[in-house]
Design a protein that fits this description.
eight-stranded mixed β-sheet, elongated, about 475 residues, Rossmann fold, Nucleotidyltransferase, domain 5, 18 helices, seven-stranded mixed β-sheet
């Protein structure tokens, strides 16, 4: 539709509610945004604009698909800030300079349309836009030098998954609230797809959940156009994800033919991760078959022998997993303990206070047989003196990893490894334990997830090398 020639007081008239916001966007940008989400647990893209525009705004995390409009809508949110919030300073920071310019090019086109009406005064200077009302926007490069020293009201970070983590950390100190002439809250917005379970966007989402930061999420279905009634659903490549809702609920801007073409070009894993936002891609994951919907359970009445899987550490975390080895070969991780900067006797005291009863068998790191610098006695010896039967068979990392994989997804039969929901650190480790980019036969030792996986693989290696005992019910 493009911009209409309008009088200044119409273009810059304050927006009172989300209905007026939708009309403003449609009138001045030509975008029609759906008012309601299509998928359970998702949001309409219009919700993002409303949360970004209406003050007092707050930090936002936007998880959206490739080509799902997040960059375009980030430009619209910036345009609204410039026109309707006098004095507002906005900066656009992309995961790369090219990504920054994608949002910037959308914004520039919008601003040139507005300036062409001669009813709003301002100018575009290279990477900077200034309006006579004192508001301004600029585009930044992906570097600490560009970010440090900033004092702005709005920082829009596009494709956070591609950010340098140090730049992202530095960006957290850039915003300041403006109190005059309008109160404009200092906020940071993180907009991205979620590519991998061990990437920066995953950490941003986890932190947002912990802090209560609003997460706005939509997938392809929220931005898909309305499907014609005469189109045959049975033969449509989008039938599985659509299930007919495109004929009744969808009213977005992505063409159906474009969506079909994209689906035909990519793998199912890429489609689910980057277009449907169901789960991160498992590319480079050590345990791609781990699925919380299958392997995380609070299954009661688990009967078997109780083991402890232990990875020693002092500066690095000491990890203990309580694992029930069932008679049918299944393993149930029912609890976890992760602690740094403690001596082994303190760990033993904590282990004994857990309500699971005595575990006679411990599977641990063979390196624990070396003498401790603090006690001159090995950790394995101290555990044995405490009454535990300690097994510490030497094995290659790849062998232990393969045992875990077999338990997750046997070539024949049902899964044999389950984890209780209380074991949050182990669940995260199963999702995030990965190989380095560029190819490697050994998983990356990241200092966070590898210790929990080590404790788990020690259990499998040592259990498989020894006999089973009768156990109790858990």
């Amino acid at each position: 539709m493009g911009f209409k020639r309008v009088v200044a007081n119409s273009l810059c008239k304050p927006i009172a509610n989300i209905q007026e916001l939708a009309r403003w966007v449609r009138s001045f940008t030509g975008l029609t945004l759906p008012k309601r989400a299509v998928c359970p647990g998702h949001d309409s893209p219009l919700i993002y604009l409303a949360l970004a525009h209406f003050e007092p705004a707050k930090d936002l995390v936007v998880w959206a698909p490739r080509g799902g409009g997040k960059t375009r809508l980030g430009a619209v949110a910036t345009l609204l800030d410039l026109l309707l919030k006098p004095g507002c300073q906005v900066r656009i920071l992309g995961g790369s300079l090219e990504q920054s310019f994608k949002m910037w090019e959308h914004l520039q086109a919008d601003v040139h349309h507005i300036l062409s009406t001669k009813v709003i005064a301002g100018q575009v200077k290279g990477r900077r836009i200034e309006f006579k009302n004192g508001s301004a926007a600029a585009v930044l490069t992906q570097s600490q030098r560009a970010v440090r020293g900033l004092r702005v009201q709005k920082l829009r970070c596009d494709e956070v998954e591609l950010f340098d983590p140090q730049v992202w950390t530095a960006a957290q100190l850039t915003t300041r609230t403006q109190h005059s002439p309008l109160r404009i809250a200092g906020t940071i917005e993180a907009l991205s797809t979620l590519h991998t379970p061990f990437g920066l966007m995953q950490r941003v989402i986890e932190q947002a959940e912990t802090l209560g930061t609003t997460i706005v999420k939509w997938c392809l279905m929220e931005v898909l156009e309305r499907c014609p009634q005469d189109r045959q659903c049975a033969s449509c490549p989008l039938a599985e994800e659509c299930n007919g809702i495109a004929k009744t609920a969808c009213q977005g801007f992505v063409k159906i033919e474009d969506a079909i073409a994209m689906k035909k070009r990519v793998s199912r894993e890429t489609w689910d991760a980057e277009m449907l936002c169901r789960r991160p891609s498992t590319r480079n994951s050590v345990f791609p078959s781990f699925d919380p919907a299958i392997h995380v359970t609070d299954k009661p009445n688990c009967e078997g022998e109780l083991w402890l899987g232990i990875d020693f550490g002092f500066a690095a975390p000491f990890v203990c997993l309580w694992i029930v080895s069932a008679p049918d070969g299944s393993s149930y991780v029912i609890d976890e303990y992760v602690q740094e900067q403690r001596m082994i006797d303190e760990h033993v005291q904590h282990i004994r206070r857990r309500p699971w009863g005595a575990a006679k068998k411990i599977a641990c790191d063979p390196a624990g047989q070396s003498r401790s610098d603090q006690t001159a006695v090995s950790d394995v010896t101290l555990l044995r003196h405490s009454g535990f039967q300690v097994k510490c068979k030497h094995s290659a990392i790849v062998d232990g990893v393969e045992w875990v994989r077999r338990a997750l997804r046997p070539a024949f039969g049902q899964p044999k490894l389950f984890i209780h929901p209380r074991c949050t650190r182990l669940i995260k480790a199963m999702l995030c334990y990965h190989y380095a980019e560029g190819g490697s036969e050994l998983p990356l030792k990241d200092g966070e997830h590898d210790h929990l996986i080590d404790a788990l693989r020690y259990y499998f290696v040592n259990r498989e090398s020894g006999g089973q005992l009768k156990g109790r019910r858990y």
